[in-house]
Write a structure and sequence with these properties.
The protein is mostly helical. The protein is extended. The chain has 2 domains: 1-34, no CATH class; 38-97, no CATH class. A two-stranded antiparallel ribbon has the order 1-2. The protein contains 4 helices and 2 strands.
Length: 97
């Protein structure tokens, strides 16, 4: 895309002029659907995410227990895990080449 660097600089200059809450308010008022992009910690504490029941804990053999966000979709024929979309076991480790 031509001029992407300039566009990024100009966009950042405009967007950093207001808080996330103010941008959400302005976009909502204009009828633009959307919402803030949350950090992982903010997601784990977000009321709608908590109400959906998709935050849980999983274990990892090396790093131990971790709080995770599962998929918001509950499919009828997936494994019966306590968190929809949760990982049943840790990913394989890559062997050194």
């Amino acid at each position: 895309m031509a001029h992407v660097d300039e566009l990024e600089v100009d966009s950042e200059a405009v967007l950093t002029g207001r808080t996330t809450a103010k941008w959400v308010e302005r976009l909502d008022a204009a009828g633009v659907p959307g919402g803030p992009v949350l950090t992982y910690d903010q997601t784990l504490a977000d009321e709608p995410v908590l109400a959906r029941g998709v935050v849980g804990e999983t274990g990892h053999p090396v790093i131990g227990p971790r709080r995770i966000v599962g998929s918001p979709m509950a499919l009828s024929e997936t494994a019966n895990l306590s968190i929809p979309g949760a990982v049943a076991r840790a990913a394989c480790r890559r062997r050194p080449a």
